Amino acid sequence: MTAHAKAKKASGLPPQEELLVDYAGRLDRHRKGRRAVHVKISLLTKYYRQQHYVATAAAAFKPLVKKFDGQLFELASGDLVFAVKDASIAEIDDVILKIRYLFADDQKLKAIEADDSGIEFCDWYDVEKDYDDFFSVALRLGSGSGEENVESEDIPAGPPAAARPELTPPPVEPEPRLSPKPHVHFRTITPPKTKPSRKRPVSVADASALVRAIQTIDLEPLIRRTQICLLPADAPPEPVYREVHVPLSLVAERVLPDCDAYADPWLQRHLTAMLDQRALALWPKLLDESPIATAIRVTPGQVFSSAFEEFEHARNRRGWGPIILRLPLLEILADLPGFHRASEKARGLGYRLCVEGFDAFTFHALDRSQLTVDFERIQARPEHIDRLADAAYTRFVDAVAAAGKPKVILAGCADKSVVDFGRQTGIAIFQGAYVDGLIDG
Questions:
Q1: Same domain, 426 and 304
Q2: Is residue 174 part of a domain?
Q3: pLDDT tens, position by position, 97-136
Q4: pLDDT confidence of 143, banded at 50, 70, 90?
Q5: Fewer Cβ atoms within 10 Å of its own Cβ: the N or the C terminal residue of the chain?
Q6: Would residue 187 count as lying in a domain?
Q7: Among residues of the chain, what percentage have pLDDT more than 70?
């Protein structure tokens, strides 16, 4: 049990737990059409049970709370219980998908999904049929005997890569349905299992070597420039803007060519953020002028760094053209308030914004209404595109149409078939090896 939860228990039932028990009791007379979900954030590692993560997960339910007058209970353990009348399974499941995506890198969650022990991250209740089960759970949570993760209290923010087991993603399940027993449905948004990499995993010593390399290696020879282009059907590509960045893969190839720096998502994100921070400090010296806008990658937090301030001063001195800031989606989801502060500052200085990191599923599943940006970048993953069923395909097309053609980018287009898919769904702006080939002729 967390110290926060112990303190509350010592003074009696926490308000939210007390309200949950009272609500569950009164629900006995109003069961019809009601569903409930119990999201067990207390099962996750300590790092992902921090308050800002819990608050972000709770915020995902807000549209349903408003639309259906739903009830959301935020428990002292970090768990969330949401009860609602007349909301469809698909609408609730979309929220669960957002929350699962927020915690996608948590090792406890990965272990839960790979295990057959019967423990689930989220339990579903058809209150009309399973009222007794729901009421029993409410009483248990109200008494403070939840499923808190006492084993992970001392786990640091992100375990070392070498300590992490290789877990197989759960299989894709059919469309969600309620059963008499608590049940959870996840739509897998990570790629299915592929052939094992021929490169070895990164050890703790390897990770230290990569960190040292990022801090000291000469980045100038590793800078890559690529153009994001409008692709008319019967005309040459029309550049919209260019991207300049230093790929992590090139740094890893120089230092540890036999290691797979992308095998561990948490380590990849950490190293990429470090690399972007160092590149940000070098752009004032290395960034050349361009007749079109230039995009650089930063995290929301880096917008408040001294390196960004120096970059801003250099931009004013050098008179560069428009600058676009590429912001990683996962960093935004981890700290929405921080993103809004960074967005407000950047826009006030005249920067344009691009959110990157969407895929074919998350682009239509996530509520993007809070992301007031100029571009939204979807990474093309053929295995995801191939799995877009009719309903998901329609939602994806609708999401693209709602965003607007000038805003959506399909990146990572390796061949014409991916571009054809984008055109069929209403996308007009592309990036990737296939586009580079068209430019080079």
A1: yes
A2: no
A3: 888 878 887 888 888 877 766 688 999 999 988 888 888 8
A4: low
A5: C
A6: no
A7: 83
Q: Are strands 238-245 and 293-297 parallel, antiparallel or unpaired?
A: parallel
* Residue from 286, 343, 281 nearest 306 by CA: 281
Task: Report in angstroms the alpha-carbon separations of 107 from 45, 47, 102, 152, 227.
Answer: 7, 11, 13, 11, 36
Residue 103's nearest CA partner among 80, 131, 128, 133 is 80
Residues 228 and 91 occupy one common structural domain: no
On whether residue 184 sits in a domain, the answer given is no
Question: In which domain, by residue range, is 283 found?
Answer: 204-440
| Alpha carbon distance 117, 421 (integer Å) | 40
Residue 215 covered by a domain = yes
pLDDT tens digits, 293-322: 999 999 999 999 999 999 999 998 887 888
Q: Based on the domain organization, do 144 and 212 belong to the same domain?
A: no
Kindly report the CATH number assigned to the domain that includes residue 265. 3.20.20.450
- Average of per-residue pLDDT across 378-389: 78
For the chain, the domain total comes to: 2
Looking at the structure, do residues 258 and 324 belong to the same domain, yes or no? Answer: yes
Determine what percent of the chain falls in helix, strand and coil, rounding each to the nearest 5.
50, 15, 35
Question: Structure tokens of 302?
Answer: 């880096």
Same domain for 80 and 135, yes or no, is yes
What value does the mean pLDDT take over residues 171-181?
35
pTM, full prediction: 0.57
Task: Tell me: do 121 and 219 sit in the same domain.
Answer: no
Among 132, 163, 194, identify where a domain stops. 163
Residues 268 and 375 in one domain: yes
Residue 306 in tokens: 């001294």
d(CA 341, CA 210): 31
Element (H, E) at 325: strand 323-328
Determine contact, residues 101/333, Cβ cutoff 8 Å. yes
CA–centroid distance for 179 within its chain: 29
Shared domain for 289 and 413, answered yes or no, is yes
Q: Comparing C-alpha atoms, which of 5, 194, 189, 201 is closest to residue 103?
A: 189
Confidence of residue 1 (pLDDT cuts 50, 70, 90): very low
Of the candidates 163, 185, 218, which is a domain's last residue?
163
Which residues on neighbouring strands pair with residue 125, listed in sequence order? 36
CB atoms within 10 A of CB 158: 18
Q: Model confidence at 432, in pLDDT bands (50, 70, 90)? A: very high
Helical segments of 85-148, H only: 89-102, 107-114, 127-142
In this structure, of 205-209, 241-245, 373-377, the range with the lowest mean pLDDT score is 205-209
